[in-house]
Amino acid sequence: MTPKKILSFALGPVGGALLGFISLPIITWFFSQEDIGRLAMLNVVVGFCTLFFSLGLDQAYVREFHEVNNRPALFKATLLPGLTLLIISLCLLLGYNNIISHWLFEVDSQLLSLLVALVILSTFISRFLSLILRMNEQGVAYSMSLLLPKLLLIIIILSYLLFSVSKNITNLVLANVTAALLVFFIFAWNTRNEWLAGLREKIDYSYLKSLLSFGAPLIFGGLAFWGLTASDKILLKELSDFEQLGLYSVAVSFAAAATIVQSVFSTVWVPTVYKWAATGEDLDKIYKVNRYVLLTVIVLFCLAGLLSWMVTFILPSNYASVQWILISCLGYPLLYTLSETTVVGIGVTRRTKFSLLATLFAFIINLFGNWWLIPLWGAAGAAVSTCISFWGFLFLRTEFSIYVWKSFPRVQLYSYSALLVIGASINTLYGKDYTTPLLVFWLFVMISVLFTFKQEVMEMKNVIFARLSSVL
User: Fold this and answer.
1) pLDDT surpasses 70 at 472
2) d(Cα 129, Cα 140) in Å, to the nearest integer?
3) For 3-40, b where at least 16 C-beta lie within 10 A, e where not — what string?
4) At what angle do helices 3-30 and 139-162 cross, to 10 degrees?
5) What is the residue-wise DSSP string for 286-347?
6) Which pLDDT value is given to residue 274?
7) What is 352-393 written as a DSSP string?
8) What does residue 6 show for φ and ψ, rounded to 5 degrees?
9) Fewer CB atoms inside 10 Å of the end CB: C or N, the chain?
């Protein structure tokens, strides 16, 4: 994939994050903390349904795309089984006395249940339609499909303000459903040739069986990772309240800016590292990338620790705790990205069961941590538990990779990452009481990288100055 293609695909996540920074403060000022917590539960369920009902066939589509002649038939074969199962399940749930709105929002509303079913269905289909754009390397169309709904969401919320629309969960969900439907219609239009051709194709059931045999095992790994990233929100709802869940979801949304690093890095790294492995490149290349990513992770954690107080200027006063919580929320995107540089051996040797084991163990750590910390600390406890569990995820992926492939130096990797997690956890739980010492701590860690990563810092400085000189 060329740099231009990478940039076109990165436009969506980067632009979406920037628009999220605009929409999130507006929503927090307009809707209650409890309703934002309810919206977080909607996102959890949408993520689960998209993952579970895909039956792993979305991954089968990606795997088979370049090896089949009839791509429309492949699309129909991978979409139809999960879509049929999803529609049947939603119809059954809608017949049970508003059970959907009761469980998700603790509100008795047939309209809310219908809206939830609609957003789940549209998001599920959009997932498969997006794969057509991604596999055909239509990066601009893919990115625009992500950006335009974000803009629509902002316009809808601002129109609520302009026309004094009621501040309730129904209107908040309605705004998000409208944005999700726009995603669906844009994807459907951009991929119309493929799926319209697929309507005329017949399903080869023996071929579908082989697709399911490939995709079904992937569901377990996907569900384990979903549990690792969603258990905090579910247990916050069950062990605390929607107010704490709303506080936590806002902190997670701010920390999600770091997913830009994760998304862009993964797009470039995965094909590159497999190419290196295939050509027998030296392990030193991978270790060097690991050090650069570790340096980036350290700097981003430190910047969050030093500057997180700035979010209080754009959020209502009841969200003051977000400045402490969001530092631990960085653990998921940043430590996950770091683990992508150390898990190479599992992919190269195709020993994927070890990746599943790492996810399962980290999931168990998060379950126990949430069960213990949420009753004591609420949203802060959930953030700390998730941050610690992703350090465990990093450690396990790294050690399993070394076990099945090759060893590499990792003292600084574990030392710095553990220091960041400990600092983030203390910041989240006790930041209000120890503000000055913690600011000194983050500043000290930031300065230390100038000595520990002296060579990397100098190389980065030379590259930046060289690029600036060429431009000027």
Assistant:
1) no
2) 15
3) eeeeebbbbbbbbbbebbeebbbbbbebbbbbbbbbbb
4) 10
5) HHHHHHHHHHHHHHHHHHHHHHGGGGGGTS-GGGTTHHHHHHHHTHHHHHHHHHHTT-HHHH
6) 66
7) THHHHHHHHHHHHHHHHHHHHHHHHHTHHHHHHHHHHHHHHH
8) -60, -45
9) C
Cα separation values, 93 from 101, 177, 211, 458, Å: 10, 19, 28, 59
Of 60, 50, 59, 113, which Cα lies nearest the Cα of 82?
A: 50
Handedness of CA 192, 194, 198, 201 (dihedral sign): positive
Question: Over the range 116-134, which residues count as b (16 or more CB within 10 Å of their CB) and which as e?
Answer: bbbbbbbbbbbbbbbbbbe
State mean pLDDT over 100-110: 91
Q: How many residues does the chain have?
A: 472
| Residue 117 CA, distance from chain mean position | 22
Residue of 277, 208, 268, 228 whose CA lies nearest to 60: 208
Q: Is 138 left (phi over 0), alpha (psi -120 to 50) or beta?
A: beta
Residues with Cβ within 8 Å of 290's Cβ and at least 6 positions away in sequence, in order, are: 338, 341, 342, 408, 413
- pLDDT per position as a tens digit, 336-349: 999 998 988 887 77
Question: With pLDDT > 90 as the criterion, what percentage of the chain qualifies?
Answer: 50
Nearest alpha carbon to residue 277 among 374, 344, 187, 354: 344
Q: What tokens appear for 437 in the block?
A: 């010492």
Q: Answer whether 29's CB lies under 8 Å from 161's CB.
A: no
Nearest to 396 by CA among 358, 363, 364: 358
Instruction: Report the interhelical angle of 139-162 vs 169-190 (nearest 10°).
Output: 150
pTM of the model: 0.88
Distance CA(180)–CA(144), nearest Å, equals 13
First to last CA, the chain: 28
- pLDDT band for position 287 (50/70/90)? confident
Per DSSP, 95 falls in state T
Q: 100: closest CA among 117, 85, 83, 88? A: 117
Whole-number Å distance between alpha carbons of 294 and 316: 34
CA 282/CA 284 separation, integer angstroms:
5
Residue carrying structure tokens 């049929």: 84
Amino acid letter, residue 463? V
Q: By CB neighbour count within 10 A (0-12 exposed, 13-18 middle, 19+ buried), where does 96 fall?
A: exposed
